[in-house]
Amino acid sequence: GEKHRVAARAVINAAGIFSDAVRRIQDRNAARHLSFSQGIHLVFDRKFLPSNDALMIPKTPDGRVLFCIPWHEHLLVGTTDTPVENAILEPKALESEIDFILEAAGGFLEQKPARSDILSVFAGIRPLISSEKTRKTSSLSRGHELFVDESRLITITGGKWTTFRQMAEDAVDKAIEIGGLNREKCRTENLTIKPPEMSRNSGERLHPTLTYTRDDVVRAVRDEMAQTVEDVLARRTRALFLNAQAAIEMAPKVASIMAEEMGFGANWIK
Q: 3-class SS at 198?
């Protein structure tokens, strides 16, 4: 709840879909650089694609490709490209998007999934660099761009998950230039990022349908700075993304383990 004033030689705005809003904090008239596109994913039981290989469907009715990917012993299917006007913190999947994925994937999977087979739905909004040539979001570049405003605020936006390291390098290089900082060789250029070592099949499971155990919660609190139940279920494990109902059922148990680790009482758990 405290406020602090911080001085810096360079400031990087990496606020994703909210980067234009951050730019307007220091310049109300800052031009809009972004267009928004929503994409959703559905998660199913692995039985719908009993294979270790992913499936790419190259042509769908909206002109996109569709991916069906084995993921944490489940099947991840997506995505959509739905233009949206505004950036919001908690986007919701549209019924039309869910119907589209069910229909498009149904013709290629071992059996056609129904709505009742959906274990989890999640949505996100892409920050796409606007173009004067087209308003069709599926045609906009997924490349990233750097902008420097008159105040020297550095904005990095656009891009995608697969280009995040290059985006970071470009942003830091620009900060070195703007702030007159010492230039050093990038230390992450050839860094391999390894997934966290989860305690698979050791200890009692927190839910019969998922492999996460008490050890995963303890590690999330002790080693990975988890502060909330959602941190553990969505951001340190993938429980919420894999099976929403299972995550809901696990939540009280996860809260109890976290409270024990962090010294909180019954009110915090509740």
A: coil
With 0-12 / 13-18 / 19 or more C-beta atoms within 10 angstroms meaning exposed / middle / buried, residue 179 is middle
Q: Once rounded to an integer, what is the mean pLDDT over residues 15-34?
A: 92
* CA–CA dist 168, 174 (Å, integer): 10
Backbone angles phi, psi at 36, to 5 degrees: -120, 140
pTM value is: 0.85
**188 SS3 class:** coil
Exposure string for 117-155, b = 16+ CB within 10 A, e = fewer:
bbbbbbbebbbbbbeeeeeebeebeeebeebeeeeebbb
The sign of the CA dihedral 234, 237, 241, 242 is negative
- Overall average pLDDT of the 84-112 stretch: 93
Tens digits of residue pLDDT in 119-147 = 999 999 999 998 665 556 665 677 899 99
